[in-house]
Protein: hydroxymethylglutaryl-CoA lyase
Amino acid sequence: MTTSWPAAVRIVEVGPRDGLQNEPFPLPVAARVELIRRLVGAGLKSVEAGAFVSPKRVPQMDGSAAVLARVLADPPPPTGATAGAVAGVVAGAVDYPVLVPNLQGFEAALAAGAQTVAVFAAASETFSRRNINCSIAESLVRFRAVAGAARAAGVKLRGYVSCVAGCPYEGAVAPRAVAGVAAALRALGCDEISLGDTIGTGNPDSIRRMLEAVLREVPAERLAGHYHDTYGMAVANVYASLELGLTVFDAAVGGLGGCPYAPGAAGNVATEELVWLFGGLGIATGVDLEALVDTAVWISTRLGRAPASRVARAVLARRQHR
Amino acid sequence: MTTSWPAAVRIVEVGPRDGLQNEPFPLPVAARVELIRRLVGAGLKSVEAGAFVSPKRVPQMDGSAAVLARVLADPPPPTGATAGAVAGVVAGAVDYPVLVPNLQGFEAALAAGAQTVAVFAAASETFSRRNINCSIAESLVRFRAVAGAARAAGVKLRGYVSCVAGCPYEGAVAPRAVAGVAAALRALGCDEISLGDTIGTGNPDSIRRMLEAVLREVPAERLAGHYHDTYGMAVANVYASLELGLTVFDAAVGGLGGCPYAPGAAGNVATEELVWLFGGLGIATGVDLEALVDTAVWISTRLGRAPASRVARAVLARRQHR
Structure:
């Protein structure tokens, strides 16, 4: 089985949103802006900047409009240390998606300058009801309005599907349920659909079966793999997805975040782990690993702990050993 | 690519040796005996019990004769909590390999009752010289004497090859170098050859290339994958090895140990991660995950920290959440 890999993949850095949203304490706007600036400095070209959701329900995302506006008003330049790694990247080429739950959220995001917005559906009915308080079908109706408004405004649309491998309420989720929601999001006009293993119970076999079902509905170039490392399977799941043709992967610097259904468990797969994996496979990411580890240390320190990723620990250990 | 998995795999628990050997502080004999007893209680059937090496060089393994003798004199019964998971396991069926560097070590191991001994070679010349103070060829001559004595005594022989993907001194290691050493160990009479990614720099592609070379010399049923999780690649590497027909994998409870070449980095892949992976793939291990996590917590607490594995963190989080 000799696999021919793509020359490059794109990492969507979700630390400032999916990561921080699942950290116990909210960070102020200035710290979130600084995190995004550092991530762009390390070479990341897609950095999820926030969520236009209820600050009562998700206090961690309060002030997302200010975060986005500040980042857009003063685009972070590539840092000196990583200029080589991000050569050719100009401010305008960096994308800052934000989550919007509905038309109201979309309008606030548009006012803040959003160029890409993301809607979030689930592949599990119970999760959909508990997470966004409506059925899957109702959420798709709601997103249709967002999609129309986004198209009219020339804003790109990303769609999330959560619980693609398992649901905290329903257990295993059928691949055809995921495929159905992915197809519906594509039909709504989503440019990219991110498949989220929200509770990290997927393994390379179940992720593969899920992807095979989704790929019958949506081509690989429209898909992103979004895997949580709750049970340490995320890197293997990314590798399996790469074998099926996916070239976009979501990850969070320092393995930020956690699992609301298992507080204390690991969060998103660490961006460092993916940069290391792709580097070893000879696939370009444009990300400077050393600058990324610096960023993982910076944000983890800000949160009062050490970076959760294996790669950050190893890189730090090597630095100290020298 | 539909893969047909084996019904069962064997996990060789190396925590009490490879794990503890790379922890900064030595544990007393009684604690090591207790660890082994708990591991057997959780259902592990191959538990590396110690190393008959210089206690000056490796103080963590001092007293290995006493550890082995105590475990053999009073074989741990399966615990009540896990009796179901280990049904059919009788004391005699559990194997306790110990490391021996030379004939003198072998004789001490034999006197302590060893039924399986392991010799350790390297695929990198520089590593061989720095680790065991002789060339690869010289080490094989030394092991020939051990192999002869083991055969004469009816003792099983395991062979380790370290640096199968990378060497801390030489960088990348050629697959044919690994294949050559593996073939030599097989020719000496090793019943099983464990391929060690000592510094964890392997990825699914490089591990696959290495295995393809080794499999031209040694059949899969004689091989074990021994991967360190320094850069978070170990689970993906195990999965890739499974695809190539390997059915024996080394792991350490709680992700014990570390990397002497990067102090602070992660150690062996955690046994919990592999039990979770194989469980998800429908492959039996005979190991009770809850009892294993209890053991990970027990030994990690003994070492003054939390378990390093994602699975232990998630299982503990779920327990607390209930």
Summary: Chain A touches chain B through 42 residues (CB under 8 Å). The first strand of chain A starts at residue 10 and ends at 13. Residues 10-79+92-321 of chain A form a domain with the TIM Barrel fold (CATH 3.20.20.70). Chain A is about 45% helix and 15% strand.
